[in-house]
Amino acid sequence: MFEKNQKKVHTITFGCQMSERDAETLTTISTKQGYQRTEHPEEADLIIINTCCVRESAENKIIGKIGQLKKLKQSKPDLKIAVTGCMIQQPGMVEKLKKKASHVDIWTGTFDYHKFEELLSLSEKGEKVALVSEDFSNSKEVAPLAEKGKLKANVNIMYGCDNYCAYCIVPYVRGRERSRPKEVIIGELQALAQSGCKEVTLLGQNVNSYGRKDNFGYDFADLLKEVDKTSNIERIRFTTSHPKDLTDKLIDTVANGKHLCEHFHFPFQAGSNKILKAMNRKYTREYYLERAEQILKTIPEARLTTDIIVGFPGETEEDFEQTLDLVQKIPFSQAFTFMFSKRSGTVAANLPNQVPLEVKKSRLQRLMELQNSRSLEWRLKMIDKEYEVLVEGPSKTNPDLLSGRTRGNELVVLNGNPGLIGQLVMVKIVNANSWTLFGSLV
Ligand code: SAH
Ligand code: SF4
Fold this sequence. Notes:
globular, CATH 2.40.50.140, Transcription Regulator spoIIAA, single chain, Rossmann fold, alpha/beta, binds S-adenosyl-L-homocysteine, six-stranded parallel sheet, 442 residues, five-stranded mixed beta barrel, binds iron/sulfur cluster
């Protein structure tokens, strides 16, 4: 009876792991208010759409999604719809969206999550509410509860960003960089471990500058060392490493860690020094190459992944070839590739020599083809070798099989019974394509 009457919340999230973590926070606030999670939007009493604005394509998808919910709201007038996160944080955005989406009940940006409970109560009383504070410094953190039985979790070690890469909107919608003290982080990890969590990803826009501005007296490598010893989490990952701050100390710490996964996600964004400078990335291709070599020299089994943008303003064919050249030189196991997208308010949005869409599309295609063949080369080398895999659940493509990830974060599909879900097993790789390894239990 109680079950039947309980209100339900359905959450849809766009964007990065940081955004996923925010969605988790907002969902947890709703569950504290009596909502039960549901996977089915049609049975929800509250739908949260947590947004992203890193690229225009994400925004267009989100606008489409908000529009789709109009029908559901019409057939279920008591349904509450909340639109939250990065996209909403942009100046003037709520006013713009409201015109098309009067069916939305709550609008709120990234600095006001601590007020979400209040906003929810107001909307339950029938009010339409919008709260987008301009100043991040008044925001208070709300840590999500450790959800029972969750195998993997994201944990922020810091918020915001001070790097102002010329193309990027993140510093404008997430405020200045601030780090969380190690005691708070370790406490959260221990609670997660107790609730059955096996793998945690420590999140920051640039984890390598952790604690620096806050004068903690310990840096990211020190934090990792301590987390490795005291958190009781089987596998610890971290993202993102800005190459400019990737130190030997960090590499050595990962090499000597027990639970620290040997995976570095460190985006190079562009291969040409001219473009790197225009992007305000503060390193050169030579420096980046040297960092990649240092990682592989210290940890030969390490996995490197990256983000790359094509078609930054002023990028010529020669500049782009330098990007291809880095992909040839460095054995990335995976690359996330994007076409430059103009973000209003960023420096790059107003630069001359914007690259035509057709050119960007063709460069992206060439880059993806090259990376796919490099990823395949890399994965084929893994055949006949054995790797530790955390079994995460049934395979998405074939539910009779299981899927999991190596320490290097490569996806593995394997045979085995569902009782293995949540366990670390040894798997021998028998086949591979560019994205997936296929293995059998050892
Ligand atoms: N803090 C992380 C990245 C956050 S955004 C870092 O510094 O690496 C994730 C990725 O989106 C970036 O690495 C970049 O490759 C891409 N990105 C950001 N802004 C973009 C834009 N305007 N157009 C295209 N890609 C963009
Ligand atoms: Fe954006 Fe650069 Fe900050 Fe990453 S480091 S979030 S790319 S400004």
